[in-house]
Design goal:
Layout lengths: L23 H19 L15 H4 L4 E3 L4 E5 L2 E5 L7 E5 L3 H7 L7 H12 L3 H17 L3 E3 L4
Antiparallel strand pairs: 1-5, 2-3, 3-4
Helix pairs in contact: 4-5
Length: 155
């Protein structure tokens, strides 16, 4: 959602643990994710909780491969990209079609690393690499908070 300043919530994701507020409709899938994380950690694979991603340095986030959450439906409504969680009645407006976020979001395909998506954004916009990565990071973490995306290679 855009504010009067022209910024979106993903432009302002802080560098701290993410406040993972789980709604009733997402409780079951959140519990399954936590079980998977615990199982991988017990097996010796280093993993992070989703809430920990906001506090990770860019170097650790760079190799993460974003993917749209299973069952999430992505649509375009009145010039905005919207997401609808599995079994949810309402959609969430994510960003306008003309936003640089669309290019980045299209790279959250389960194949492209976060740093690669940021590099492609820098090429398209002329932004410096730091700004492009900060924007890409913010979009990814904001989409995690909204249940739209997950890190493919961590969970």
């Amino acid at each position: 959602m855009q504010e009067e300043s022209g910024q979106y919530e993903f432009d302002k994701v802080p560098r701290q643990p993410l406040p993972m507020n789980i709604s009733r409709r997402r409780l079951w899938s959140a519990m399954i994710s936590e079980i998977r994380v615990t199982t991988r950690a017990v097996g010796g694979t280093p993993v992070y909780q989703l809430s920990d991603l906001g506090a990770q340095p860019d170097e650790k986030l760079a190799g993460i491969i974003p993917v749209v959450a299973p069952g999430c439906k992505i649509t375009v409504v009145e010039g905005h990209v919207c997401g609808q969680l599995s079994k949810a009645a309402e959609t969430t407006q994510l960003f306008p079609l003309q936003s640089p976020a669309l290019q980045v979001f299209n790279l959250f395909n389960g194949l492209t690393r976060l740093d690669e998506a940021a590099a492609q954004l820098a090429d398209k916009t002329g932004w410096d690499p730091e700004r492009s990565f900060a924007y890409t990071r913010g979009l990814f973490l904001w989409l995690i908070l909204n249940g739209i995306c997950l890190p493919k290679n961590e969970y």
